[in-house]
Each structure stands twice: as C-alpha cells, then as structure tokens.
Write a structure and sequence with these properties.
By secondary structure, the chain is α/β, with parallel strands linked by helices. 38% of the residues lie in helices and 17% in strands. The protein has helices spanning 10-17, 20-28, 64-80, 101-108, 127-133, 149-160, 208-226, 228-236; strands at residues 2-7, 32-37, 50-52, 60-62, 88-98, 115-118, 136-139, 193-194, 197-198. A 5-stranded parallel sheet has the order 2-1-6-5-7, sandwiched between helices. A hairpin with a 7-residue loop joins β3 and β4. α1 (10-17) runs parallel beside α6 (149-160) and α7 (208-226) crosses α8. It is elongated.
Length: 237
C-alpha cells in the first residue's frame, strides 16, 4: 500500500514514517511512504502558499493552486510507475467524521488504492482544493492541532499496521482494543509476581478455554465501565 502525505513540513512526517514498525515495513517493501512538500508547487519566488481570507476573518488560508499542483504531481508519479488505481484523498480536518478503527480496516482492505493525506495549516485550506481532490475529511478527535501532520501519521500508523506483513505477527492485530467493539483485556508478562502484584492464576493454568473466557469477561467489563457507547454496539452485534 502507498501512503502519500502532502505537507508543508516533510521532514516531520518523514521522520515518523521512517522509524519503528512503519519504517521497517517500508524497508521490507510491504508498504511505501512519501512526503510531498506543497511549497515546491508554489508559483512565486518566496514560495508562499497562503493568503488572506475572502470576506475577512483572522488568520491566513492555504491556497488551492499549490495544493492542486502538488496533487497532480502525485498523479503523474503514479502514472509514470504504471499505477492505474485511482487514489483516495483525505484531508485531516476537525470538521470531518471521526476516524475510528472500522475506517482503518476499510482503508487497509484496499491496499492497491494509494492513499493521499492532505495536511492543513493556518485557518485551513481553500474549499476549491478539496473539491478538486475530491477529498473526504477525517478528524482524529474533538480538539484542534497546529497542523495536520500528527493527525496524518495517526492514520498512516493505524492503517499500515493492518496490512499483512507490517506487524511481526499478523494475528497481533486481532482480539485487541476495538476489535468487535470491545476494549482489550489486561495483559501480563514475566515475572509472575512484581511488587507484590500477581498475574491472575487463570493465565498460568494452561487451560485455554478458561483463559479465553476470562479474557472475554474482562473485555466486556472494561468496555461496559469505560466505553458504554461501544458496549451497546457490541451487544447489538
């Protein structure tokens, strides 16, 4: 799967995508990532990409032209490599629908579709850029960030880890938090006793049926207490 990030700060996104599990997956060729500097497509000497807002208001707005030129640059790159699948464009915006695990699963289910992530700044972007990119808007939560870079990395990480071969064990993405609308049960590792706190006996029993039942019970209890909204969805399945 290919991830293309349109940003004013490519060093920021490159640093994150080049490290840890995502970085290793890129080196293995399981996924590919690239940051595109929107300023490279500005048609002025100072490489300005923003301007005043029509109708007045505080702050500046990212212009449509450098964004659209950058987008066309990505399309040309895909065409040059004989990638014919139409990319999916996403604009990271607090106005968008909330990004959830099921959206990550939906995106990862189409690894042949290149994903283009547009990172906004200032007061956002000219609406015409979103229309030209046919971009859907996604939000990572009900709060405001200084830019879309961190939000885009959340989406890259959440989607990429679901691509087969990215994680060391492909089964590790199953039966975890948000799987089947349940939060993950408590987990333990060695030693059996630490600072007087013991690992639950059932996890040491070797009885896999009892362990599975305990884990489900714990997940249900935690979800009911912490996320009743998820628990209701779980019960409705």
């Amino acid at each position: 799967m290919e991830f293309h990030v349109m940003t004013l700060f490519p060093e920021m996104t490159d640093m994150i995508m080049g490290e840890s599990i995502i970085g290793r997956a890129v080196k293995k060729g399981v996924i590919s990532t690239r940051s595109w500097n929107i300023r490279d497509y500005a048609q002025n000497r100072s490489r300005h990409v923003d301007d005043y807002i029509y109708g007045g208001g505080p702050g500046m707005l990212m212009q449509a032209d450098p964004i659209y030129r950058c987008y066309k640059g990505i399309l040309e790159d895909l065409e040059a490599r004989d990638i014919t699948e139409k990319p999916r464009a996403i604009y990271l915006s607090p106005k968008g629908r909330t990004f959830r695990q099921e959206i990550a699963e939906e995106l990862s289910a189409a690894p042949e579709t290149p994903l283009i992530l547009l990172c906004g700044h200032y007061e956002g972007v000219d609406e015409r850029a979103l229309q030209l990119l046919n971009a859907e808007e996604l939000s990572v939560g009900d709060y405001i960030l200084t830019g879309g870079e961190l939000a885009s990395m959340i989406i890259v990480d959440a989607v990429a880890r679901l691509i087969p071969g990215v994680l060391g064990d492909d089964d590790s993405s199953v039966s975890e938090t948000f799987h089947d609308n349940l939060l993950e049960c408590p987990q333990y590792t060695r030693p059996e006793v630490y600072e007087g706190l013991r690992v639950p006996d059932v996890l040491l029993s070797g009885n896999h049926a009892k362990i599975a039942a305990w884990r489900l019970e714990q997940s249900e209890m935690i979800t009911r207490e912490r996320r009743p909204d998820l628990y209701e969805r779980y019960r409705d399945i």
